[in-house]
Structures are given as structure tokens and as C-alpha cells.
Write a structure and sequence with these properties.
- There is one protein chain.
- The protein is mainly α.
- The protein is 29% helix and 0% strand.
- The longest helix has 24 residues, at 3-26.
- The radius of gyration is 35 Å and the shape is elongated.
- It starts with a helix and ends in a 40-residue tail after the last helix.
- The relative contact order is 0.06.
- The model has no long low-confidence stretch (mean pLDDT 90).
- The structure holds heme C (HEC) (8 copies).
- The site of one heme C has 18 residues, from helix 3, helix 4 and helix 5.
Length: 246
């Protein structure tokens, strides 16, 4: 037999011996009793302390909060997502109360803007959305509704409003050009305001033969709708919130 075959057999024998020794000393005793895993793992897991109680238990003592939340848009958010594991508290309330997330850090975990969230999920930019105040000064955590709906468009469109205020269009109300359902101020992403589509809107005031609107005292510069701007929509060339003619 060639010498190298002897060496290969020796190596092979060593591996088999090592495997048998390892199997004897290292494989846990209950391995294989219930299948290809350690049967005692079930007991190990079962013996770990229970940290979460589940929402049903909270209802025993906090039925008011449970009822309020059940009819809210947070109905699918479990109590302990916000209050942390509370099994100890549920067993013995005298042992201490769970913390409540009263600062601004918790809510953006779900509501901070993130493009991977589903469309329509209520999201905000925590840096820009009413900074410095805790979320719960305006939103009830167990019944989150958008509160104190602002009346002015400028509350949410500050940039546009500021630009317009310094422009020739300062006297024009936003709703002169945008049809805006009241619901837009509560649910701005679901209910949108209209955007002008046709140049005739601008023609209402700027066409040669247009009537002077009763509520506007300024002399309005007129153009010929037929020839001016080669038929393109006006906002190809004039920013409607700051129209300039240069
Ligand atoms: C056996 C009754 C009981 C159960 C069950 C129970 N609690 Fe309480 N909980 C209390 C009592 C009593 C207090 C008031 C303690 C106090 O005001 O000092 C309290 C207070 C709280 C507070 C107030 C914290 C604060 O900062 O004011 C929170 C939050 C709370 N519980 C959450 C929970 C959650 C979540 C559950 C379910 C996992 C739960 N509790 C289950 C009795 C219970
Ligand atoms: C979205 C996060 C959130 C969820 C979900 C939530 N809580 Fe709260 N909870 C809070 C915050 C924040 C406060 C503190 C409110 C405050 O101080 O005005 C609070 C306060 C409480 C209090 C103190 C008394 C009160 O009514 O303000 C209790 C009790 C309580 N929560 C129980 C529960 C129970 C029970 C559930 C599940 C049914 C639950 N919470 C779900 C965030 C949450
Ligand atoms: C675990 C995730 C989670 C956390 C944490 C959470 N929310 Fe929500 N929130 C939701 C879900 C889910 C909805 C419902 C979305 C839907 O209906 O499409 C919601 C809805 C809302 C809405 C929209 C209500 C409306 O009518 O448009 C507001 C406001 C809100 N939450 C505020 C808060 C505040 C404030 C906190 C912190 C105290 C908070 N959320 C913490 C998941 C969360
Ligand atoms: C000063 C009051 C105030 C504070 C503080 C505040 N919000 Fe709001 N929030 C509002 C108002 C008003 C609206 C409705 C108008 C809007 O969308 O801006 C709103 C809307 C929302 C919406 C719904 C947006 C949508 O597109 O439907 C969410 C989610 C929300 N807030 C979460 C938060 C979170 C999270 C915090 C804390 C980090 C917070 N808010 C702090 C007043 C507040
Ligand atoms: C509560 C906050 C809020 C108020 C108040 C508000 N808007 Fe908006 N608006 C928004 C948000 C948020 C969007 C962006 C929606 C999106 O990106 O899908 C928007 C979008 C728009 C758009 C663009 C629609 C599009 O298709 O691109 C117009 C136009 C508009 N708003 C006009 C108005 C006018 C006019 C008013 C006052 C009568 C007003 N909005 C009041 C929050 C508000
Ligand atoms: C003279 C008519 C006119 C007035 C007044 C006007 N808009 Fe517009 N706005 C437009 C037109 C036209 C567009 C569409 C531009 C486009 O499609 O590119 C537009 C677009 C918008 C948009 C979409 C984003 C953007 O900047 O293009 C928002 C938001 C908006 N307007 C809000 C407002 C608000 C808020 C006011 C009042 C402060 C206002 N508009 C006043 C004509 C007007
Ligand atoms: C309700 C009437 C009205 C409507 C609708 C209207 N405008 Fe005007 N426009 C005015 C008034 C008023 C002035 C300012 C006159 C002045 O003070 O010199 C003006 C001025 C202008 C100017 C001249 C700015 C300058 O610096 O001289 C342009 C360009 C203009 N508008 C474009 C538009 C466009 C584009 C639209 C459609 C998106 C539009 N306008 C819709 C009333 C209107
Ligand atoms: C292709 C670009 C373009 C388009 C599209 C366009 N404009 Fe102009 N507009 C201009 C330029 C450039 C000027 C300044 C030079 C001039 O007076 O012809 C101007 C000037 C104006 C003036 C000021 C005239 C004066 O006498 O001071 C008004 C008002 C005006 N445009 C309204 C409109 C309206 C309304 C529309 C849509 C029906 C429109 N524009 C479409 C480029 C355009």
C-alpha cells in the first residue's frame, strides 16, 4: 500500500475518533428525545420570567384606558409597546408603575418620516413638526386625533404664504386659485387641495377683456391670451406665488 494512503487512513481514523468523543461528551443528554433538537430547551424557555402581560390583563384595572384606545387609531398598538413590559406591575401594582413615554423620543419611532412606510401612514418630521413641545401636549396618546386644526393655510404652507405675501399676488387669497375642502386641514394627505390646470384661471384677471374683480383695487396688467406665452400654461414662466414680469 502506498505510504500516502496509510497517512490518509490515519487522518480519517482520527477524525472519526474525535467525532465519537465529541458526541459522547458534548451533545446534551436530551438531544433527540423529541426530534432533532435539545428537548430540555422547552423547559429552559418556560422557566424564564414572564415580562409582558398582554393587553387583556390591563383591562382588569384600566378598563377606561382600554375602552378609549379600542375606538382610536391606536387600537392596533399594544399597551406595552409604549409602557414597556408590565407583567410585574399587573401582578402587583404596588411594586411600581410602568413608565409612560411623556417626552418626544418615543412617538417618532413609528411616526418619524421614513420613505419605506406605507403610503398614507401618518408621518411627521420630528425636527420640523411643532418642535420643543412634547407630543402629548397636543395629541392624546390613547386617542390620537389631529387637534386644534389651524384655520390658516400658512400654518402648514409657511414658505408659500411668505413668498406670496411679498409678491404682486399678495392681495389674492389662496382659495382663489386652489379649491380646498375643509377636510384638507385635518387629513392633508388623504384629502388634497386642487391645483390649477388651465391658463384660463389666470385669464380671469389678466386677459385683455377680463373684468376688474370687485375686491381688487390695483390696476391689473393685461395680456393677450391668444398670443402671450405661446399657449403654454402660465406657470411655465411665472411662479404663481411670486409672479414677476421681467
Ligand atoms: C391589578 C390591577 C392593575 C393591572 C392588572 C394593571 N394596572 Fe396599571 N396601575 C394600577 C394602579 C392601581 C395604578 C396606579 C398607581 C399609582 O397611581 O400610584 C396603575 C398605574 C398605571 C400606569 C400609570 C403610570 C403613570 O405614570 O401615571 C400605567 C402606565 C399603567 N398602570 C399601565 C398598565 C399596563 C400597560 C397594564 C397591563 C399590562 C396595567 N397597568 C395593568 C393597577 C393595575
Ligand atoms: C402610543 C403610546 C401609548 C399606548 C399604546 C398606551 N399608552 Fe398609556 N400612556 C401613554 C402616555 C404618553 C401617557 C402619559 C399621558 C400623560 O401624562 O398625559 C400614558 C398614560 C397612561 C396612564 C396614566 C393615566 C392616564 O390615563 O393618563 C395609564 C393608566 C395608561 N397610560 C395605561 C395604558 C393602557 C392600559 C394601555 C393599553 C390599553 C395604554 N396605556 C396604551 C402612552 C401610551
Ligand atoms: C408602535 C407604533 C406607534 C407608536 C409608538 C405610536 N404610534 Fe401613533 N399611530 C400608530 C398607528 C398604527 C396609527 C394608525 C395609522 C392608520 O390608521 O393608518 C397611528 C396614528 C397616529 C396619529 C394619527 C391620527 C389621525 O387621525 O391622523 C397620531 C396623531 C398619532 N398616532 C400620534 C402618536 C403619538 C403622539 C405617539 C406617542 C405618544 C404615537 N402616536 C406613538 C402607531 C404608533
Ligand atoms: C403644538 C401642538 C403639536 C405638537 C407638540 C405635536 N403635534 Fe402632531 N399635529 C399637530 C397638529 C395641529 C396636526 C394636524 C396638522 C398637521 O398635519 O400638521 C398634527 C398632526 C400630526 C400627525 C398626523 C400627520 C398626518 O399626515 O396625518 C402625526 C402622526 C403627529 N402629528 C405626530 C406628532 C408627534 C409624533 C409629535 C411629537 C414628536 C407631535 N405630533 C407633536 C399638533 C402638534
Ligand atoms: C394641517 C396642515 C395644512 C393646512 C392647514 C393646509 N394644508 Fe395644504 N397641504 C398640507 C400637506 C401636508 C400637503 C402635502 C400633501 C402631499 O404631499 O401629498 C398639502 C398640499 C397642498 C397642495 C398641493 C397639492 C398637490 O397636489 O400637490 C395645495 C395646493 C395645498 N395644500 C393648498 C392648501 C390651501 C390653499 C390651504 C388653505 C386653505 C391649505 N393647503 C391648508 C397640509 C396643509
Ligand atoms: C394666482 C393663483 C394662486 C394663488 C393665489 C395661490 N396659488 Fe398655489 N399654486 C398655483 C398654481 C398655478 C400652482 C401649480 C404650479 C404647478 O403645477 O407647477 C400652485 C401650486 C401650489 C402648491 C404645490 C407646491 C408648489 O409650491 O408648487 C401649494 C402647496 C400651493 N400652491 C399652496 C398655496 C397657498 C398656501 C397659497 C396661499 C398662501 C397659494 N397656493 C396661493 C396658483 C396659486
Ligand atoms: C384674482 C385676480 C388674479 C388672478 C386669478 C391672477 N392674478 Fe396675476 N395679478 C393680479 C394682481 C392684482 C396683480 C398685481 C397688480 C399690481 O399691483 O401691479 C397681478 C400681477 C401679476 C403679474 C405681474 C407681476 C409684476 O411684477 O408686474 C404676473 C406676471 C401675474 N400676475 C401672473 C399671473 C398668473 C401666472 C396667474 C395664474 C396662475 C395669475 N396672475 C392669476 C391678479 C390676479
Ligand atoms: C413662455 C413664457 C411665458 C408664458 C407661458 C406666459 N408668460 Fe407672461 N410674461 C412672460 C414674459 C417674458 C413677460 C415679460 C415681457 C413681456 O411683457 O412680454 C411676461 C409678462 C406678463 C405680464 C405682465 C405684463 C405687463 O404689462 O406688465 C403678465 C400679467 C403676464 N405675463 C401674465 C401671463 C399669463 C396670465 C399667462 C398665462 C395665460 C402667461 N403670462 C404666460 C413670459 C410668459
Amino acid at each position: 500500500m502506498p505510504q500516502q494512503i496509510k497517512r490518509l487512513v490515519l487522518v480519517f481514523a482520527l477524525i472519526v475518533a474525535g467525532f465519537l468523543v465529541a458526541r459522547h461528551f458534548l451533545v446534551p443528554p436530551t438531544f433527540g428525545t423529541l426530534g432533532h433538537y435539545r428537548a430540555a430547551a422547552v423547559d429552559t424557555v418556560a422557566s424564564r420570567p414572564i415580562r409582558y402581560a398582554g393587553q387583556q390583563v390591563c383591562a382588569d384595572c384600566h378598563d377606561d384606558v382600554v375602552a378609549e384606545k379600542a375606538n382610536s387609531r391606536h387600537s392596533s398598538v399594544a399597551c406595552e409597546v409604549c409602557h414597556g413590559p408590565a407583567a410585574k406591575h399587573a401582578d402587583d401594582p404596588d411594586s411600581g408603575v410602568p413608565p409612560a413615554p411623556r417626552d418626544r423620543s418615543k412617538c417618532p419611532l413609528c411616526h418619524g418620516y421614513n420613505p419605506s412606510r406605507p403610503t398614507g401612514f401618518p408621518q411627521i418630521d420630528p425636527q420640523a413638526h411643532n418642535p420643543a413641545k412634547p407630543c402629548i401636549t397636543c395629541h392624546k396618546p390613547h386617542q390620537p386625533v389631529t387637534p386644534n386644526v389651524p384655520g390658516e393655510c400658512s400654518a402648514c404652507h409657511g414658505q408659500v404664504a411668505m413668498t406670496k405675501a411679498l409678491s404682486a399676488h399678495a392681495p389674492l387669497a389662496c382659495i382663489r386659485c386652489h379649491e380646498t375642502p375643509e377636510e384638507h386641514k385635518i387629513n392633508p394627505r388623504q384629502v388634497v387641495a386642487s391645483k390649477p390646470r388651465r391658463r384660463e384661471l389666470c385669464g380671469q384677471c389678466h386677459a385683455k377683456d377680463a373684468e376688474q374683480p370687485a375686491d381688487i383695487s390695483e390696476a391689473i396688467p393685461r395680456i393677450s391670451m391668444g398670443s402671450h406665452g405661446s399657449g403654454l400654461v402660465c406657470w411655465q414662466c411665472h411662479y404663481p406665488h411670486h409672479p414677476e414680469a421681467k
